[in-house]
Amino acid sequence: MTHAVEHHASKVPEVTLGFWLIKILATTLGETGGDTVTMTMDLGYLTGTAIFLSVLVVLAGIQIAAKKFHPLLYWSVRVASTTAGTTLADFATRSLGIGYMGGSLLLFGCLMAVVALWYWSQGSISVATVNAPKAEAFYWAAITVSQTLGTALGDWTADAGLGYGGAALVFAAGLAVLTAAYYWTTVSRVRLFWAAFILTRPLGATVGDFLDKPLDHGGLALNRPLASLVLAVCMIACVLLPPQRPHSFSTV
Description:
This protein is mainly alpha-helical. It has one domain (8-244). It has helices at residues 17-40, 44-65, 71-95, 99-122, 133-184, 189-212, 224-240; strands at 6-13, 246-251.
């Protein structure tokens, strides 16, 4: 018995080196952008969270309703999720007072719950299966929670005595280990993807903090709006110049 194989294209980008570069730029931009609104503009964590979550809901709704992959739209949702994650994590760990460790553990539990529900509902958490509204809703929920977790985890690591630069090196080393596992082991590619996805967030968060935090806090004290603008320009260039293709897959 023969089966026809239908080729489809999901609405997420192909996972390449360029994908990871843009991902790190987006997470760093999310940190400096979130700090610009909550600290430089002095709107506070709660107001900042309300603003970015509202933007995220609108953009994610447009993304899910879209019929095909649009690179700028996809990465706009990604930036919205990482800025919302920044302000939400800061609100939870600082304003609510649960601390970096408490926030990290709580958010890790939330992420595992989202992933478990996604797997239970769809039978897979692979990005190759993100081609229907329900799967895409789970995808963006997992991304947003992982972005929030990454912010808390980055702050926790930096606050443990490593500083922003040292924490960034720790997460970069973790990504190097995952890269080695990808090329030289048979560990599940889906698990490696999500592990790398989570680790790139605290890497971007600590790099962002290193750029804009005061000198006496271990940062470079760069202007937050200017740093955010430079990061946004670099990110847009990376999205537009090398043409991005949707992640392709097949169903039998």
